[in-house]
Design goal:
The chain has 330 residues and is an alpha/beta fold. 42% of the residues lie in helices and 19% in strands. The protein has helices at residues 9-13, 32-45, 75-85, 95-98, 118-121, 125-140, 152-164, 194-226, 231-239, 243-254, 259-274, and strands at 4-6, 21-26, 50-55, 89-91, 144-148, 170-174, 281-290, 295-296, 303-313, 316-326. It has a six-stranded parallel sheet, with helices on both faces. The protein is globular. Mean pLDDT is 90; it is low at 252-257.
Length: 330
């Protein structure tokens, strides 16, 4: 397959369309995480469809003091990776092509969800992100668009924009891709020195610690459903030698609801240790949130949640998250 490199929307519109068009939006500096998105798009679009990869470093997403100027621009390598992963087109427009006449006066507002977590740390970031996503959806006119779960808040906001503003496009989420040591793939990983990378591994270790704690709590809850959690039942089980079942039943009977709190605490321990490393990890936030609005969940919460973390190691800011599901209350 030969991947076409296009720079204008007119060139893209001139292409004949057959099956479904899938778009993967990137800011370039492509890595295996992007390749996974492209391969997934290829599978969904099928042999008769078309996969378009956009490469555009959006100035509206960068605040004062952020890394717009040093953000890596590797278009030749990006086209090669996109081609190997199965893309039909790399669409790499100029700033003037996306924003003719300068920065747009009319923009998409991310609303209250865009002011939390990443939005609180990077004011205006999500307004700029949604504005360019809306622009690129109009310019590329896809049937579906794929985004990675690593940027969980971004994904949630795009889904909300598409639903609230009636964009006729299907949004597909693709699981986070990790390196062998657990670090989530990111274009910013290249900024880390070997010592900084060792510290940065605390982000994924913290998430996995929270995940392990969650799994243990859910297993106990499942056990409690099998063994009714009453003192009388526990005593009866003890009398016939079922000590483990009795202990489980008694523990659940005496336990105070607090699964989310325990998950946060397990993750926090790892991050606190990392703050004492050399170089240290500077925590921005650790949050356990409802993915529908990115507000913190309470201890009686049931349903899907996201455990998210952001931190700086040296001058590099990194984010990561994992999805969790809390079972029904006993």
């Amino acid at each position: 397959m030969t991947t076409a490199l296009l720079h204008t929307a007119e060139e893209l519109r001139a292409r004949a369309r057959g099956g479904r068009r899938a778009v993967v939006m990137t800011m370039g500096a492509l890595h295996e995480g992007h390749a996974t998105l492209i391969r997934t798009a290829r599978e969904i679009a099928g042999p008769d469809g078309e996969v378009v990869v956009t490469v555009f470093v959006n100035p509206l997403q960068f605040g004062a003091g952020e890394d717009l100027d040093r953000y890596p621009r590797t278009l030749e390598a990006d086209v090669k990776l996109a081609e190997q992963a199965g893309a039909d087109v790399v669409f790499a427009p100029s700033v003037d092509e996306v924003y003719p006449g300068g920065e747009p006066q009319v923009r998409i507002s991310a609303g209250p969800m865009g002011e939390r977590l990443e939005g609180a740390s990077r004011p205006g970031h999500f307004d700029g992100m949604l504005t360019v996503v809306a622009k690129l959806l109009h310019l590329t006119r896809p049937d579906l668009a794929l985004y990675g779960q690593k940027d969980a808040q971004q994904l949630a906001l795009i889904r909300r924009m598409v639903r609230d503003l009636n964009f006729g496009v299907e949004i597909v989420a693709v699981p986070t891709v990790r390196e062998e040591d657990g670090l989530a793939l990111s274009s910013r990983n290249r900024y880390l020195s070997p010592q900084e990378r060792r510290t940065a591994l605390a982000l994924s270790r913290a998430l996995f610690a929270g995940q392990d704690r969650h799994a243990a709590l859910e297993a106990l809850r499942a056990r409690a459903r099998e063994v009714p959690s009453t003192r009388a039942r526990a005593e009866a089980l003890s009398a016939i030698g079922e000590s483990r079942a009795a202990a489980d039943a008694h523990a659940v009977a005496k336990a105070v609801p607090g699964g989310p709190a325990a998950v946060r605490a397990a993750a926090r321990l790892v991050l606190d240790d990392a703050a004492r490393l050399d170089p240290p990890l500077a925590l921005d936030y650790l949050a356990l949130v409802d993915p529908s609005d990115f507000t913190e969940i309470g201890d009686d919460f049931t349903g899907d949640a996201v455990l998210a973390v952001a931190a700086r190691v040296g001058t590099t800011r990194l984010i990561d998250n994992i999805p969790l599901t809390f079972g029904a209350a006993l």
